[in-house]
Write a structure and sequence with these properties.
The chain has 148 residues and is α/β, with parallel strands linked by helices. The protein has helices spanning 12-20, 25-34, 44-57, 62-71, 81-87, 96-104, 115-118, 133-147; strands at residues 6-10, 38-43, 75-77, 109-111, 129-131. Helix 7 (115-118) links the parallel strand 4 (109-111) and strand 5. The termini are close together.
């Protein structure tokens, strides 16, 4: 029985935290991506934001970032401008491209450490769950058990 893998959109905060610390939930999520247990989704905005932050704050992590970018099976979601405008009804303008990419990518989860995503109103109207990597990992065990 071949089940569809859980589709997870990773915000830049998760990728940066995963590169910065080998012990946290973000690193474990990247490991699940590497093991092929979840399907990772990002957008060009996420890629650029991670690059900017690593260059300025974690220059030693640049090689690791380029390695995961090339080795992980990321699906890069391209989002039409009108979808970004619609996402601005859900979240602030700065985070709207990320929200739009998660919606447009038809993911199951949007993982972020950003408080703006955690504070989104009417989350039940979205077709995916917004969570921190830690919350996702707690629920992922149940998801895997459910699929068996």
């Amino acid at each position: 029985m071949n089940m569809r893998k859980t589709r997870v959109f990773l915000d830049s905060s998760v990728i940066i935290a995963g590169l910065a610390s080998a012990s946290g939930g973000s690193h474990k999520v990247l490991a699940l991506c590497e093991l092929g247990l979840i399907d990772p989704f990002i957008s060009a905005e996420v890629q650029n934001e991670v690059l900017r932050n690593i260059k300025s704050k974690l220059p030693k992590a640049m090689d690791a970032f380029e390695r995961i970018l090339n080795s992980l099976p990321f699906t890069v979601v391209e989002v039409p401008e009108e979808d970004i405008k619609r996402a601005e009804l859900i979240i602030n303008t700065h985070d709207a491209p990320i929200m739009a990419a998660a919606i447009f990518g038809k993911v199951d989860w949007l993982l972020s450490l950003d408080k703006h995503f955690q504070a989104v109103q009417e989350k039940e109207k979205l077709d995916f769950t917004i969570a921190t990597p830690g919350e996702f990992l707690q629920r992922f065990v149940d998801i895997v058990r459910h699929e068996e």
